[in-house]
Amino acid sequence: MELNRITIHWILLGVILTSTRLATAENQSPAGEPIASALSLADARRAAFRNNWDLLAAKSDVDLATAQRVVAREFPNPSLALGTTKIGVGNQPNGTTMGNSLWDRSYDTVAAVGQLIEIGGKRTARATSASAGWRGAEARLADARRLLDQAVTQAYAATALAERNQQVLADSAASLRREATIAAVRERTGDISLADKSQIEIAAERLELDARSAEASAHNACVALEVLLGMKQPRGQLSLAESLEQLSDRPEAAILDATNANAFAVAANRPDVLAAEAARSKLEADLRLQKAMRVPDPTFFGQYEHQPPDQPNTVGFGVSFPLPLWNHNRGAISAAQAMAEQAAVQAQKVGAQAVADILTAQTSFSAARTRWQQYRDELAPKSRQIRETVVFAYENGGASLLDLLLAQRNDNEVRLAAAQAAADSANAAAALQAALAMTPSPLFAKP
């Protein structure tokens, strides 16, 4: 019996350790780094910058652009040509006065080496295009980080908001359940009717149903946050370390000062604007390359020829190039010119949109922060005080059932609106931070 108990204990210990390892593996990033179950917003940002799938893909684009820069700088390889002609067939003799060995026969053997030389600025245009493409990839990576930072903050705030809504509704339902218990006692003594007691119970049940719906919304919001963090198997089991009030009450001083920032000066250095400018520069370099393609590139070559017996060893030099008689590369030039013009228009559009984003974000942040402060400092405390006063009066027979339900409903609406205002304030701060490109320094070093 003792042996069986020991065996069972070891089996249970193995199950516990296995479950722990599986739970840890589920919360690991693609790189195998664990993600804590209780996250602050700063920890969530760091995890997303390290593990997010889209950001890792954007980093791969930078690696690809780096490879293109290497390709653009490479010099074309020389060409080698070997050939032997004038080989006799049948009774035709190939022997010479020098002999009949393979080297002394009258075969005409030629070895030539050719080297293509690009002229007309082709290499410069190609290198300029590759460098602009690399700058664009870097800017797109920075822009992806900018947008990811905003998305993580919004997902974090959405999860906190859903959890707060569930908490508000559950607290209200519990409060009405207590009132229903008191109402049952008063109904037995004849102070209130059965209908009044039933109305309180119905109101409590409705709030409980709403609380369960809010709980499902909180779970879905948590799953969306886990996807942004790059978790392999999102399950909606993260626990947030910061409340909705903490998210709304701690905007950085730099963000508060940024409400007066010069939108035009800031927009010029935003990553999406820099990416659009890099795309314009790249296509302009591509246009110059297509125009340079009209100039034929010469190929210089040198050859060694062996043909016994009269001139057994000779050398020669030459040059070849295509004659631009029929094809002047007009189609490629027209296409490149159209793309360059399109990129110029797109760069102007992105610049104007960046300015509009900044101005809109500044206004929205100021309005959202003022609204949240008013709910926090004025409306929510007054609503809570009114509800507590009516509840006390109802329990002592000084208020009607209608007064109780109305006070409870109004307080719920104010508390839910206050939570929404807090989330709006946090989201507006994130939007302003993204509009101003106030993201942390890149984690990926430039090549």
Q: Which secondary-structure class do the elements indicate?
A: alpha+beta
Q: CATH first level: which class?
A: Mainly Alpha
Outline type: elongated
Mean pLDDT metric: 84
Main sheet, how many strands, which sense, barrel? 4 strands, antiparallel
Q: Cα distance, first to last residue? A: 67 Å
Total domain modules: 1
The radius of gyration computed from the alpha-carbon positions, rounded to a whole number of angstroms, is: 38 Å
CATH architecture: Up-down Bundle
User: Strand portion, in percent?
Assistant: 5-15%
Number of strands: 6
The CATH superfamily label reads Outer membrane efflux proteins (OEP)
Spatial arrangement of strands, main beta sheet: 2-3-5-6
Polypeptide structure, described:
With 447 residues, the chain is of the alpha+beta class. The protein has a single domain, classed as Outer membrane efflux proteins (OEP), CATH 1.20.1600.10. Helix content is 67%, strand content 9%. It contains eleven helices and six strands. The protein has helices spanning 2-26, 41-51, 53-73, 122-189, 194-228, 244-249, 253-257, 263-267, 271-292, 330-395, 401-435; strands at 38-39, 79-85, 108-116, 239-240, 299-307, 311-320. The strands form two sheets. The protein has a four-stranded antiparallel β-sheet with strand order 2-3-5-6, with no helix packed on it. Strands 1-4 form a two-stranded parallel sheet. Strand 5 (299-307) and strand 6 (311-320) form a beta hairpin. Helix 3 runs antiparallel to helix 4 (122-189), helix 4 (122-189) runs antiparallel to helix 5 (194-228) and helix 9 (271-292) runs antiparallel to helix 10 (330-395). The protein starts with a helix and ends in a 12-residue tail after the last helix. The relative contact order is 0.13.
